[in-house]
Amino acid sequence: MNKLQSKFGSADTEVVSREICHSGFLQLHRLQLRHKLFAGPWSKVIDRELLVKGQAVGVLLFDPAREEVVLVRQFRVGMIDEKQSPWLLELVAGMAGEDEDLLEVASREAEEESNCSPSNLTEIYSYYNSPGTSNERLSLFCGQVDASNAGGVFGLSEEHEDIQVVVLPVNELFAAVESGLINNAMTIIASQWLQLHKEELVQRWR
């Protein structure tokens, strides 16, 4: 048996009941479910809350000629009770609509949040952000931009966005991840991917 693959699948779970207990900016479901156990039988029925968010996209904007990245800084409510500033430095990102093309989402979010139009969009990874509590899936991309004139404050006022563009040399990005100054998952993952592939991208995109 391949150790990387589970012997269980979706048929080895059963949702006994599902209730939508909140529907606002986020949607929260309460489930009663059971699943197969490694020892053989089924588990008892257990209660779980599920944060329903769906598909999201993050975009690392990279200028291979200047070896700079374009990031954004904005307020994040998840940091409101932390000592660290809740204005995080991170990738351009946004939610995808149902059946929406992810490359189109990546381009749209880059333009809305940073006023940059990326080319050569390349998929990095797709992953589940916090599968213990949420179904949110994040697809990360890297896109080529000209960072020479990047800067300013952007975002959609109707979505209460107030987004500052920040241009960094790639080595400053890598150092900020290494020191823990940048500590959000999608920016760390994209940064480490860029460390592995930077020279290849510089050669291909220049």
CATH class of the largest domain: Alpha Beta
- Principal-axis shape equals globular
Contiguous low-pLDDT stretches (5 residues minimum) are: none
Structure annotation, total helices: 3
- Rg, please? 20 Å
Distance between the termini: 45 Å
Helix coverage percent of residues?
Answer: 10-25%
Largest sheet report: 8 strands, mixed
Q: Let me know the average pLDDT.
A: 95
Beta-strand percentage range: 35-45%
Can you say what the CATH homologous superfamily of the largest domain is? Nucleoside Triphosphate Pyrophosphohydrolase
The CATH architecture assignment of the largest domain turns out to be: Alpha-Beta Complex
What order do the SSEs take from the amino end to the carboxyl end, as H and E? Answer: EEEEEEEHEEEEHH
Total separate domains: 2
| Number of strand elements | 11
Structural class: alpha+beta
- CATH fold label of the largest domain: Nucleoside Triphosphate Pyrophosphohydrolase
Concise synopsis of the structure shown:
This protein is of the alpha+beta class.
Salient structural properties:
2 domains, 3 helices, Nucleoside Triphosphate Pyrophosphohydrolase, single chain, alpha+beta
